[in-house]
Design a protein that fits this description.
alpha+beta; Protein Transport Mog1p, Chain A; eight-stranded mixed β-sheet; three-stranded antiparallel β-sheet
Length: 187
């Protein structure tokens, strides 16, 4: 498994912890479990629709979606890892109910927790359907660029994420946009 995907999976668990949604496993650890190896998809593969009725969302992914194992029964993650080590993922988790007037501040707090002192590449308030959302991107110490779109609907947090080498961040914009713009909430 590529170093980028390992860092990507680790960030998923760290993000959950930063939101204080109780992501630690029974032994108190916070890392994603090692689980079975993740099947790597070729770059430039066929984009496929992934619909998750339980998660109440649909999205286009550049390959077959697989479930990414996490040591957290409050979160579910599906995604694709590419041969180049980058990846695309959607994760949803249960959070404390957030009043509509407090959603934007909660999203800003989550962003601040995730980014910390890392180099911020982008941040923007957006909407998904009629829901407020927040996009942000940053560079990890290992050189990977992470792009997040966060959406809170009631007591559910959606994290629509990509990871790529920072040097490829600009050239990955078209695929990243296709992925992010395809994310839809289902009734």
């Amino acid at each position: 498994m590529g170093d980028s995907m390992m860092a990507f999976r680790w960030m998923l668990a760290v993000l959950l912890c930063s939101m204080a949604v109780g992501c630690s496993s029974k032994d108190g650890s916070t890392a994603a479990n090692s689980g079975p190896p993740i099947e790597v998809q070729p770059d430039g593969g066929e984009w496929k629709s992934f619909r998750n009725p339980e998660g109440k969302y649909s999205v286009l992914l550049p390959g077959e979606a697989i479930q990414i194992p996490l040591d957290d029964d409050k979160a579910v993650s599906h995604g694709v890892e590419l041969e180049t080590g980058g990846g695309y993922t959607v994760m949803y988790s249960t959070v404390d109910e957030v009043a509509p007037e407090a959603v934007e501040q909660r999203l800003a707090n989550i962003q601040a927790d995730v980014v910390g002192k890392k180099k911020l590449l982008h941040e923007e308030k957006v909407t998904v359907g009629n829901q407020p959302a927040r996009d942000f991107a940053f560079v990890e110490d290992d050189g990977d660029a992470h792009y997040y779109r966060l959406i809170i609907v009631g007591s559910r947090l959606y994290q629509v994420m990509t990871v790529t080498e920072a040097a490829k961040f600009a050239s990955a914009k078209e695929d990243r946009k296709r992925f992010l713009d395809s994310f839809e909430l289902l009734e």
